[in-house]
Design goal:
This protein is an alpha+beta fold and 206 residues long. The protein contains five helices and eight strands; from the N terminus they run βββαβββααββαα. 28% of the residues lie in helices and 25% in strands. The strands form two sheets. The protein has a five-stranded antiparallel β-sheet with strand order 1-2-3-5-4. It has a three-stranded antiparallel β-sheet with strand order 6-7-8. The termini are far apart.
Length: 206
């Protein structure tokens, strides 16, 4: 985007990629995380709807333990979300590094991480739209990959790309599992009706 200068690609997943970008205005420069759809999805109506749902849902959640969506726009490379940049590591990377060393995350650190994620989830589950109506958000993909541990000591929940919410424009296809299977609640795997408790189950697995 013209306002955001691409620096490097931070991560890439099945649906899109996250880049680190900078924005300079009147001598003040700040880093942001910019999320984009992969090129082969940017014109796909279903993926674009999911992408815009993520912007709408995450944009309504204001909490220190949730990565906020600050802006949404589109350019020649397709739609993009501008998010807070978390200077840190995904919990999945931290777990892998500690296991490679034959160690465990210290209990007091693990408890702080879980406490922060629980607070972020509570904010998501309680989120309301501009009309004051509860959005009934269900993240559906609480896993170490979507938990960012900052060097500032705070932990933040991210990636509401497959979240389920009241009034979402994208629909879940029947018989399609969305999320990471090893962290899913039984009712989610069985395609039964779900509510916010599936997120708490996933956090318990984490």
């Amino acid at each position: 985007a013209a306002r955001y200068r691409h620096l490097l690609t931070l991560a890439s997943g099945g649906m899109g990629r996250v880049e680190i970008a900078s924005r300079e205005q009147q001598g003040f420069e700040r880093l942001y995380a910019v999320k984009r759809l992969h090129d082969h999805f940017k014109d796909d109506a279903e993926f674009r709807a999911m992408f815009m749902d993520e912007a709408r849902i995450a944009g309504c959640i204001r909490h220190t333990n949730v990565v906020s969506v600050l802006d949404v726009d589109e350019d020649e490379d397709g739609p993009y979300l501008v998010m807070d940049f978390v200077d840190g590591r995904a919990l999945s990377d931290i777990l892998r590094a500690t296991m490679d060393e034959g160690a465990l995350i210290p209990l007091n650190v693990a408890l702080l991480i879980v406490r922060d994620v629980a607070a972020g989830l509570a904010a998501a589950h309680d989120a309301k739209g501009s009309d004051g109506q509860g959005l009934e958000v269900i993240h559906r993909d609480v896993s170490p990959h979507n938990i960012l541990v900052g060097f500032d000591g705070g932990t933040r929940l991210t990636d509401f790309g497959i979240a389920k919410a009241l009034g979402a424009s994208s629909n879940t296809s029947t018989g399609v599992v969305k999320g990471k299977i090893r962290y899913m609640a039984p009712e989610q795997l069985a395609f039964r009706p779900i509510d916010h408790r599936v997120d708490l189950y996933s956090l318990g697995v984490v």
